[in-house]
Amino acid sequence: MIFFWAFVIGGLICVIGQIMFDVFKLSPAHTLTTLVVAGAILDGLGLYEPLIDFAGAGATVPITSFGNSLVHGAMAEAEKHGIIGVITGMFEVTSSGISAAIVFGVIGALIFKAKG
């Protein structure tokens, strides 16, 4: 049943993003930012962790999970180190994903030739 709910919840998050494109005519940057901020707000309110427990990858794969990770890391480090922890916590939790994106982007740029 977990696969079903992961599909449904992940699909609903994607449908929300598609509606933002088609109905509200938002740019990809605005849509991306809105979904990240929504994930951050949901985590700040304590609602994203129960969603992850319920839907698994359906809640951790979409971009809303990035906002969740930023707030989750910042809040965890703020409890340990105060205001400095807010800044360092965001980077500590998300640094591996960001680093991987940069490294794989550079490798892809070196291997493949752009058309145009």
TrEMBL record:
The keyword Ribonucleoprotein does not apply. It comes from the Bacteria. Keywords: Membrane, Transmembrane, Transmembrane helix. This is Stage V sporulation protein AE. The chain crosses the membrane at residues 6-24, 83-112. The lineage of its organism: Bacteria, Bacillati, Bacillota, Bacilli, Bacillales. NCBIfam families: spore_V_AE. The keyword Calcium does not apply. InterPro entries: Spore_V_AE, SpoVA. It comes from Oceanobacillus zhaokaii.
